[in-house]
Design a protein that fits this description.
disordered N terminus; 5-stranded mixed sheet
Length: 419
């Protein structure tokens, strides 16, 4: 049985904590307990109504014993029907309903016979009403009560089945979404790993062991951060920037002073939640198409700011661009088609995580450059404190942005191929 409100987020839990109470368990959380509660309430209410009606019609108090016996009889027969219905409910509809009608008819006849016989014994000395008349009178009442009980039994059970199927479908959809997000995220690592390992291989062939070891160390640190994060999970902007810094340290081994970066992260955006490894493909794309083809290199800038209830992320480079053409998501231009899994991967991840509630826009100014703008709902990352994903403080991110040229010692530049 699905618990009501199970999909409510952290806000509901916080509200409950403030009110200092624990919500009651759903009525049908324990089906056996719920069945017996309904039995007691239903047949107890029917007995009370019958008793009040009998006393109002001038029956003596001793007649209440007969009312009790009759209700115990009907309740006992309903328990037998519950066992039969439990076997029939999963059969084909024709078998279920025809067998239910037969079982209900037999149950009503048996109940009417017992109740008529008990009533005949009670008024044997005071009334000359025949046994058949008493049974017929009990038959109509038993048919009404047991028929209503049977209808409620099937209605409640079918309702529970629909709820369980909906809950199962919801879990399957969540698992499918999580699996697709994991697949999309894991496409990124081989894409980046090929370039890095190719560069390390070139350094080893050139006997540049010290820079090769440094690149391997930074690669292991970067992969540790990417593997610690849960597939399809979220991290803070600060954690994502730290991961980008690890990645850029690796790329600076290849491009040296040609790779320049600028980060501008507003204080309000530092703890905002974003999908993990969302920005790394954009930076990798900028290195491939802006830094690599130009002798003077290029500058890559990242801006993160909160605009009302939205978080805006902008990744831009000073590369050649695409001759000032604006690129739409539905009709990607030649540059987006040549970026492989990078931009398409980000589009798919944003669609999976936010549906239509996001913005992904690519523009290229006439004077050159390439800019990607992402807007998603602004949400604070829950319990990000203490995470080993961001061991460095990020207070400096709120300062005015500055160019960050390479500070690594000069090494032989590895000219590995790009994907």
């Amino acid at each position: 049985m699905r618990r009501p409100g199970a999909r409510n987020g952290t806000s509901q839990a916080a509200a409950i904590a403030r009110l200092h109470f624990t919500p009651a368990a759903p009525f049908f959380a324990d089906k056996n307990r719920a069945f017996w509660r309904l039995q007691m309430i239903g047949w107890g209410g029917a007995m009370l109504l019958h008793a009040v009606t009998s006393l109002a019609n001038g029956r003596p108090l001793s007649f209440l014993v007969i009312v009790l016996i009759q209700m115990v009889t009907r309740c006992s027969i309903s328990l037998i029907l519950s066992v039969i219905y439990g076997q029939l409910i999963h059969r084909r509809p024709l078998v279920t309903w025809s067998s239910t009608a037969l079982a209900l008819g037999v149950a009503v006849i048996v109940s009417a016979a017992i109740n008529g016989w008990v009533l005949s014994l009670y008024q044997a000395q005071t009334s000359d009403t025949g046994f058949a008349s008493l049974v017929l009178g009990a038959f109509y009442l038993d048919l009404t009560l047991l028929g209503a009980w049977s209808a409620l039994y099937y209605a409640i059970n079918y309702f529970l089945q629909v709820e369980e199927q909906a809950d199962r479908l919801e879990r399957l959809e969540a698992q499918a979404t999580s699996a697709q997000l994991a697949m999309l995220r894991y496409q990124l690592n081989p894409h980046f790993l090929f370039n890095t390992l190719n560069s390390i291989s070139t350094l080893v062939l050139l006997k540049q062991t010290e820079p090769a070891n440094a690149m391997l160390t930074r690669l292991s640190a970067f992969l540790r951060h990417t593997l610690v994060a849960q597939p399809g999970g979220t991290v803070t902007v600060a954690q994502e920037v730290h991961t980008l810094q690890l990645y850029l340290d690796i790329e600076r081994m290849r491009f040296e002073e040609r790779l320049r970066t600028r980060f501008r992260v507003d204080p309000a955006a530092v703890n905002a939640a974003i999908p993990s490894l969302l920005l790394q493909p954009l930076v990798e794309n900028a290195i491939k198409y802006a830094v690599s083809p130009q002798e003077e290199g290029a500058r890559i800038s990242l801006t993160a700011q909160v605009l009302g209830s939205r978080l805006r992320l902008v990744v831009a480079d000073t590369g050649p661009g695409t001759q000032g053409r604006a690129l739409a998501m539905e009709q990607p231009a030649s540059r987006t088609e040549s970026t492989g899994v990078g931009l398409a991967n980000i589009r798919n991840r944003l669609a999976q995580a936010y549906g239509e509630d996001h913005r992904f826009e690519i523009t290229t100014p006439p004077e050159g450059g390439f800019t990607v703008t992402i807007e998603i709902p602004f949400e604070l990352q829950g319990d990000s404190a203490g995470s080993d994903m961001a061991p460095q403080p990020f207070a400096a991110l709120s300062k005015p942005a500055i160019d960050s040229p390479v500070h690594n010692p000069p090494v032989h530049r590895a000219s590995g191929s790009n994907l």
